Amino acid sequence: MVSASAAMLASAATSEGDEGGESLHRVSWRREVPVRYEADVAVVGGGIAGVSAACAAAKSGAKVVLVERFAVTGGNCTVGGVGAFCGETAGQGEVFDAIVADLEKWHAIAPYKPYPKADNRVFDHEILAVVLQELLLRRNVKLLLHTRFVDVCVDGGRITECIVCGKSGPEALRARQFVDCTGEAEVARAAGFETVKGRPGDHVQLPMSLMYFVRHVPESKRRAQVPEGWFEAIRDKGDLPMTSVWPNGPGGNALKIKIPLFDSTDTESMTAAEIRARRRMMEVLDYYQRVEKKPWLLDHASPRIGIREGQRVVGDYVLTIDDLRAARRFDDAIARGVYYLDAHKPDDDKRTYILSPEQRRVPPYQIPLRCLLVRGAKNLMVAGRCLSADQLALSSARVTTTCSMMGQAAGIAANLASRERCDARNVDPLSVRREVEARGAVLGC
Q: What is the pTM assigned to this prediction?
């Protein structure tokens, strides 16, 4: 049993006599929970970065547990409905190669074209959920689905256990090494390590997007679905939010709409974002049905809004936009990015960008292992969009292909640290790089 304690912040409430008129009430809670799981490497968050970290560590021989809050792994690519890999899909490493190979066996991915001849590669996101599940199981990764990360136990910068909660209630997961792939740096934040979010000054994050799906119907069955008066009617194309229409198999399409000005690290803001997204979804659908007479009926929406930017850790190195533009090389390089600076303007819902088209282009660049090492942490690494980077650098490095490369490297490094009984930053970075390249990752710029 371990004792888990956390300060839970309750709602702000007005209190007479307080100088500011408000006081923050706090409660403390404490309970004993069983240590139900033990591992060499614990990965929290089962998006592509988390899957890649877990698979890479398991391939190295580690005992791995992967914690995922939804019913399937894959994150934005499955639960978020984003059915396209952005950037280069060759040379990303053996984990990503295995994912693509399995999708090809299912005839569930578009043919390969090199970047930038094609900047995305469409796949079936429902098939991907099955492919990832089976890949993890083949590698003997212990999966904990429908399981939320809750808190950590920390001793002198070392995480001893993390507290998770599934249908069995709160339980402890003990591991030698932890990898935070939550996207919002939830493990790092709970452990008290420094994090940042958004742009400097106001911390506004890159905008979210909702994916939803329509099916085509015969003319005799076409109809407007939204009752008059429920939501704001859009009757002019110029009033639409940024809307992208994607292929989604025979007789269907996927639509993506931009939802700006919400905070993915705040409970009430995320609630408001989901509500706003579904309202906008119906307004946009109504426009296409009534005004453009599209033969579309709503099939379903992704159960979660897509998040571009959450919280980022402050690592041993902060990747900057200048690093990308200079194609800076690093001795401890473990991943390579090529995607343009996909930084949508965060404070409007149109197809606008922070940078001009010329400014958005970057040469191939490297990401060092130090961006995955959390400053002050002894046995915690990150991978995916919570890497140590500034906002503009993140806008490129956050894409799935690059996240997979980071995840693979984190899994390799975590296994080495576990095996050698040392802190993550004491692992020889050149050994990690050599193993990353041996497993098929192309790092040259």
A: 0.93
